[in-house]
Amino acid sequence: MARGMVIVGAGECGGRAALTLRDLGYAGPVTLVGDEPHLPYERPPLSKDAMVSDAPEIRAIASDEVLAEKSISHIHSVQAMAIDREAHKVRLSDGSVLPYDKLLLATGSTPRKLPMPGLGARCVYLRTFADALAIRAHLHTGSRIAIVGGGFIGLELAAAARKLGAAVTVIEAQPRILMRGVPAEIAEIIHDAHVAEGVDILCGDGIASIADDGSEARVTLAGGREIVADLAIIGIGAVPVTGLAAEAGLAIDNGIAVDAQLRTGDPDIFAAGDCCSFPLAVYGGRRVRLEAWRNAQEQGVLAAKNMLGAGEAHAAVPWFWSDQYGLSLQISGLSDEGRSIVRRDLGDGAFILFHLAEDGRLVAASGIGPGNAVARDIRLAEMLIAKRAKPAPDALGSQTVKLKSLLAA
Amino acid sequence: MSDWVAACAAGDIDEEDVMRFDHGGRTFAIYRSPDDEYFATDGLCTHEKVHLADGLVMDDIIECPKHNGRFNYKTGDARGAPVCVNLKTYPVKVDAGKVLVRIR
Ligand SMILES: Cc1cc2nc3c(=O)[nH]c(=O)nc-3n(C[C@H](O)[C@H](O)[C@H](O)COP(=O)(O)OP(=O)(O)OC[C@H]3O[C@@H](n4cnc5c(N)ncnc54)[C@H](O)[C@@H]3O)c2cc1C
Ligand code: FES
Description:
The complex is a heterodimer.
Chain A: E1 5-8, H1 12-23, E2 30-33, H2 49-52, H3 64-69, E3 72-75, E4 80-84, E5 89-92, E6 97-99, E7 102-105, E8 109-111, E9 123-124, H4 129-136, E10 144-148, H5 152-163, E11 167-172, H6 184-196, E12 200-203, E13 207-212, E14 217-221, E15 226-229, E16 231-234, E17 238-240, H7 243-247, E18 256-257, E19 269-271, E20 276-280, E21 286-288, H8 293-307, E22 319-324, E23 327-333, E24 340-347, E25 350-356, E26 362-370, H9 375-386, H10 393-397, H11 403-408
Parallel strand pairs in A: 1-2, 1-7, 2-3, 7-19, 9-16, 10-11, 10-16, 11-12, 18-20
Antiparallel strand pairs in A: 4-5, 5-6, 8-17, 13-14, 14-15, 20-21, 22-23, 23-26, 24-25, 25-26
Helix pairs in contact in A: 1-8
Chain B: E1 4-9, E2 17-23, E3 26-32, E4 38-42, E5 56-58, E6 61-63, E7 70-72, E8 78-80, E9 89-90, E10 92-95, E11 98-102
Antiparallel strand pairs in B: 1-11, 2-3, 3-4, 4-9, 5-6, 6-7, 7-8, 10-11
Bound molecules: flavin-adenine dinucleotide and FE2/S2 (inorganic) cluster.
FE2/S2 (inorganic) cluster binds near residues 50, 66, 67 and 69 of chain B.
């Protein structure tokens, strides 16, 4: 009898992988193990719509009914503790042991901890629904919120907190917000939007110390300024969850190292989503780790295919979005691959920056604008990037040349 | 009783493109396929209620602008995560250069 497929981590990636195994007709046992008490759910709303809602709810990737209908066994609130590669078994925190034919590690990432003493009950991180509920309880008129780190999650939280009437200070050690992966021109638009909404953004000043007495957090900056907050939310990036893989002797390289087919060094163990690093074909196999929702979804699907022997290589272009106030940002590709920038204005203040490599190849596109103004052109740019196209800069910059026409060329 | 409503002129939409159409407090998306046929669906994505008309049409697929969920706009079938609920479709005809949609 088949031992079946075991997926560790019931998040975006693990959930999609389980569903895909069934969609592809796999008939053996499929077991999804997750240490959270919930159905697999989408994290992006946690810092957006769910955070401003009066009663935040989980947006599940699959309901209990769908999981039952597809005979996917979902073991929740249980952690996978160890992998016995020889015996093809995973040991769980409830003492049970799961045999597997193929194992997928979709353990995600976890917030990077601020390496500093003094943090207490009023210093928190956001990753899970439980974290979101705890934060939500502090966001109301008159509450004082300090956000440590001017990255996406911090800024989305700043926007949510303002919407709920809190006083918000964002503390960023770098000279500007969104230093990682976002061009200065776009970061400036986002910065200005926050300032216009009343957020106090402090850039270029690191934290000297934090004193948290359990009822408030006092954040002292290197420059001497002190910010007193009812809640300090720390958003300084994420680190991959690799402990289980490392202890099983699998290679770790800024994430669980996999090949283009998402295989670890063990032919029966795959890794996908936020927890893995993989070679990105579109940039000549550059090894990257992405913390992005669509990547988790796509890699979950790809891992499922390859667990069934498809042997398919990852070929997608990275894509990311963020919503703050009425603005949406979308980025496809990795902009650090670019050497020059061409700007295309789309009207209503929306614009796209096309990032070109030395040889003229389009390697990334970053867009910002109200609503979904940039979505269609970012999607077309993504297809151009995938085709490794070298569109004429004049055409990219001209609003009258349709991007779709460049794709046909 | 005729419940055919004029949505736009046939030439208002490019081939392989989509347009938003609001009527009676509701919103729809009107499509022109690459082979020059017209179709209509509900205007909002079934994932987060975003206007599909801001999305990209590729063959018989409309891709949502927000998170790239996909639907077949001819049948309304949900075709790619994160969408799993189908779109409602509406009959369309072209008469004297006008695109008419039957709204029930
Ligand atoms: C607040 C927030 C907002 C975001 N917004 C955006 C956005 O706007 N756009 C975007 O592109 N991306 C966004 N992301 C990123 C996106 O959500 C992630 O890339 C995605 O969730 C990764 O999916 P994953 O399945 O790889 O990991 P995860 O979703 O982290 O799931 C991994 C799961 O595995 C569990 N787990 C780990 N180890 C074990 C173990 N040993 N045993 C059992 N279970 C285990 C974890 O608890 C977790 O439930 C956001 C993330 C957060 C936190
Ligand atoms: S709103 Fe359409 S895919 Fe999410």
